[in-house]
Amino acid sequence: MVNISSKKAYRTKRKARETIKGCDMEQYERLWDYAATVRQSNSDSYIAIQINRRSIEQRATFQRLFYDLGALKKGFLASCKPIIGLDGCFLKGPFGGQLLAALGKNGNDNMQKGLVHAIEELFPGAEHRFCHKHLFENFKAKFKNSELRELFWVTTSATNVDDFKRALNALEISQPQNGEDLTVASWLKRLSYHLWSRAYYGIAAKADILVNNLNESFNNCILKARDEPIMTLLEFFRRKLMQRLTLKKQGMEKYGGKFYPNIVEKLAKVTSVVNLQRRSYSCDAFQLTGIPCVHAIFAIQSMRMKVENYVDECYSKKAYLRAYAYSIGAVPSKDHWIDSGIQLLNLPFVKKQPGRPKKLRRRGPDEPRDPLRASKKGLTIYYKRCLKAGHNRELVKNLLIPNQSCTRYI
Known about the structure:
By secondary structure, the protein is mainly α. It is built from 17 helices and five strands.
């Protein structure tokens, strides 16, 4: 047994980590070379590095980086739905920072108040939708009445304007205005209906999604890599996406159907004035998603026609394969990187906060610590021996009420 100090143990751990995952200083210094190598091995890729330079003689300091692989860009433009999910997460490394991700959505079946002005300025005319899960978290923080929660989801999920107005009116009746107190209806009305109401969504994207689950899944997928050095992090993304593109393409090539498996499953579940020429119905679900609703399916089947002929082309196998037709190229080891000839970069400036850095994100008030384990919060607990509510081992052992017994039932 060898006795070493805690400082020596930490230094040994840091050196081992640098050997396995790479040195932060070296990776920031060679960031220009890595970007040039990725562009060479992946055509049409775009990598932009923003720096802060005080003088020509001094080294520049890294600020931020934009990373876009050509295969992903071309696949999105070729066949993905015209909808992008935006979300961010914090990095856990010694320099902190945030990772902002923009993800597209294929047809095989997801934004927030702070982004409204940015979207309007940078993408004028683009449709902007809120994630209803985040909107609901803000709703729960302001309004504690649990009876209004169901009306909230009915209002935001209505697919046509008439149903939306009826649901919004029900909200106003359930919580009438009391002086200047803020109500749920008045809180929702402060936001444009096009941001949060499915009834006012555009039909070009062929998507009625209400939540940004796509980005949430991505954040969970990269969780173990968020404390890695910058190049190790970027290489994790590239390899993960390279494997995924190949896997999805091979899986769909083996599939024999005309449309995506998830879409066929949705059509199978609905076996039940429709305008089949315009592919629309008064409930608006048909034209919003591009998938025949139950009313449209009934009309199609009554005319002895195939339901598949009225599904939008974006859900077809051909469209799926167009999205995954491009592959991400391999990047050689650092010994074979291109010498960009650009001055080396300094590490980003970071203000070290007191205390141990946090690794876990802040959870919502109603979010369980372990999502796979059912919570007993709010349930009535019965003692297994007497099956009486509120009893436990200590209470039964020290009963204060005379003549009260605890009988074990067999």
